[in-house]
UniProtKB/TrEMBL annotation:
<dbReference type="InterPro" id="IPR029044">
    <property type="entry name" value="Nucleotide-diphossugar_trans"/>
</dbReference>
<feature type="signal peptide">
    <location>
        <begin position="1"/>
        <end position="21"/>
    </location>
</feature>
<keyword id="KW-0472">Membrane</keyword>
<feature type="transmembrane region" description="Helical">
    <location>
        <begin position="399"/>
        <end position="418"/>
    </location>
</feature>
<keyword id="KW-0732">Signal</keyword>
<protein>
    <submittedName>
        <fullName>Glucuronosyltransferase PGSIP8</fullName>
    </submittedName>
</protein>
<dbReference type="InterPro" id="IPR050587">
    <property type="entry name" value="GNT1/Glycosyltrans_8"/>
</dbReference>
<keyword id="KW-0812">Transmembrane</keyword>
<keyword id="KW-1133">Transmembrane helix</keyword>
<feature type="transmembrane region" description="Helical">
    <location>
        <begin position="370"/>
        <end position="392"/>
    </location>
</feature>
<feature type="transmembrane region" description="Helical">
    <location>
        <begin position="424"/>
        <end position="442"/>
    </location>
</feature>
<keyword id="KW-0464">Manganese</keyword>
<feature type="transmembrane region" description="Helical">
    <location>
        <begin position="338"/>
        <end position="358"/>
    </location>
</feature>
Length: 475
């Protein structure tokens, strides 16, 4: 009996030892894997104080999620200033798997330069990337990068590597660095002593800090996966300027892998804005990546509410038109009312202009272009219907710009152009053909307003019946 109990105890101890060994080995493997991933990082920065903070927050999330989709072997890091909303930080950490490093904004000593652009005031926060000393290499990114494939081979590059988009000046939208507190402290010292900076931003500072990069060799990742030392130029395929695409409507970059698209264009033509497509063909490519990674859950309710509102406006104004038309009757115009007539004409023209501009600014900026343009066209038609019925204007004349906009979008979105020059000429030719129709609609509107005022629909004489029998059935 005692022998049986002893054997049972030995079996239990053996089983417990096996379980503990399994747990320890699993933990060790997980720790080794985590340690391996912590050697490298893709990093971006985020700060507040511009009119486009939310848009760059969305762009950063899309870029980080796209890197996760590519299964990069690196941590994802966002260097965020202390005033970034806590809700955004939680979303980045909990939903996007990003490590957020909170920093204090670096004071920009170049603010008083004559050519200083205030939107670059906090871009020197990018220097905090050199403080990420937990990593062997960091790829520092701007939020307007669109990754087509993994670029983990960049972690084999040296102490500093960047791409020359401009023939003589490298671009700081993507660069590789080896973190170092000594380098970071030296950079802060250079800021204190006022190192020359042509643009007052990170671009000008870093090009001055690494002045000899143009003379360095092109980086080619070693086949055995080892890291190289020194500074290198990166092939253009790691920062393909979108403007190169617009000329040929295709990529033709032979040097290096075609891995990353960058959009160093005007701020209001960044790819995440809904109006960027079809004005810029690559805008839709960025939104396709957002659709696959982040989606449009935050903007969709707003778009549905706006669409419902526009449909109600169109229905109400249509039902109100018969009662409005009864206000028209023939009268002799009075000279004393000429000023009010001029004001009414101006109000009608400004109302038409507002009908085509107000819906544009009501749409959330980061929605999908197809949804954005659809709601814009619906909204402009709804507001145009108010103008048509309020001023009794001819519908075709008022809606001529609407038709012209639809045609322009169709011409720009056509996918069969041989190159960007043909596309630009086609848009110009279409605009040239539309001009006479727009002018004719303008003259038609002015003539209708004049006819309406001559009938004195809006200014009947006091004490007079508003509907004389002889003119009650004019319309």
């Amino acid at each position: 009996m005692e022998d049986g109990n002893g054997r049972r105890k030995i079996s239990l101890l053996f089983l417990l030892a096996v379980v503990l060994a399994s747990v320890v080995s699993t933990s060790a493997a997980a720790s080794a894997s985590a340690s391996e991933k912590r050697r490298h990082a893709y990093a971006a920065m985020m700060y507040m104080g511009t009119p486009r903070d939310y848009e760059f927050y969305v762009a950063t999330r899309v870029m980080m999620r796209s890197l996760s989709t590519l299964r990069v072997d690196a941590d994802l890091v966002v260097i965020a200033s202390a005033d970034v909303p806590a809700r955004w930080v939680r979303t980045l950490e909990e939903e996007d798997g990003v490590k957020v490093v909170t920093v204090k904004n670096l004071k920009n000593p170049y603010e008083k330069q004559g050519n200083f652009n205030n939107r670059f005031k906090l871009t020197l926060n990018k220097l905090y990337a050199w403080r990420l000393t937990d990593y062997d290499r960091v790829v520092m990114l701007d939020s307007d990068n669109l990754f087509l494939q993994s670029t983990d081979e960049l972690f084999q590059c040296g102490q500093f590597c960047a791409v020359f988009i401009n023939p003589c000046i490298f671009h700081t939208g993507l660069f590789v660095l080896q973190p170092s507190m000594d380098v970071f402290k030296n950079m802060l010292h250079e800021l204190d002593v006022g190192r020359k900076n042509p643009d007052g931003a990170d671009q000008g500072f870093l090009t001055g800090y690494f002045p000899d990069l143009l003379d360095k060799p092109i980086f080619h990742p070693p086949a055995n996966g080892t890291k190289v030392d020194g500074t290198y130029r990166l092939p253009l395929g790691y920062q393909m300027d979108a403007s190169y695409y617009y000329l040929k409507l295709r990529w033709s970059i032979p040097c290096g892998p075609n891995s990353v698209i960058t959009f160093p264009s005007a701020p209001w033509l960044k790819p995440w804005y809904w109006w960027s497509w079809p004005v810029l063909p690559l805008g839709l490519t960025w939104h396709e990546q957002r659709w696959k990674t982040l989606g449009y859950g935050e903007e969709l309710p707003v778009m549905l509410i706006q669409s419902a509102m526009y449909l109600v406006i169109m229905a109400v104004t249509r039902m109100a038109r018969p009662s409005l038309s009864k206000l028209c009757y023939n009268r002799r115009p009075e000279k004393s009312l000429s000023f009010l007539h001029a004001v009414l004409k101006a109000a009608a023209m400004w109302s038409i202009l507002a009908a085509y501009t107000v819906p544009f600014f009501l749409i959330p900026r980061t929605v999908h272009p197809l949804l954005g343009w659809s709601v814009y066209l619906l909204g402009s038609a709804a507001f145009a219907s108010i103008v048509i019925n309020a001023f009794l204007l001819p519908a075709v004349a008022v809606l001529t710009p609407w038709i012209a906009i639809v045609g322009t979008l169709s011409v720009m979105a056509c996918p069969w152009y041989s190159d960007g020059v043909v596309r630009a000429l086609s848009v110009f030719a279409y605009a040239f053909c539309c001009a006479p129709f727009l002018w004719a609609s303008f003259t038609k509107i002015v003539g209708s307003l004049q006819q309406l005022l001559e009938r004195d629909a809006f200014f009947p004489r006091l004490g007079e019946s508003t509907q004389p029998p002889e003119f009650s059935k004019l319309y």
